[in-house]
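Q: I have 100 residues here and want to know how they pack in 3D. Can you give me a structure?
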Amino acid sequence: SFAYELTVPYILGVYYKPEIHLGAGIDLFARVGITHASAEVKGTNSSVKVESSGNSLGYGLGMSMLSTKTTKVTLDYTSYYNRSGVAINGFSLTNTFLFP
């Protein structure tokens, strides 16, 4: 068994994000694009350290809805990076304040 620590200093991406308006302030969207990520894997009980960076396909799905006239709540899942055994995936919940 090998214990390790994964650090991701940065993720940069360019995405296309088509949306479908369902009405009543609810939108569904998809996300697809290219991601560039940097990762560092370090053994917790040894001096083994491996650094890697590269490009990968990024994709995701989500939904947003108006919670009031000036705020929107968005929930989405995105697979940012999946290459060479390193996968970076995540859920996000965002509250956006809209300017009138």
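Q: Anything worth noting?
A: The CA atoms of residues 64 and 74 lie 4 Å apart. The beta strands are 4-16, 19-23, 26-43, 49-68, 71-83, 86-97.
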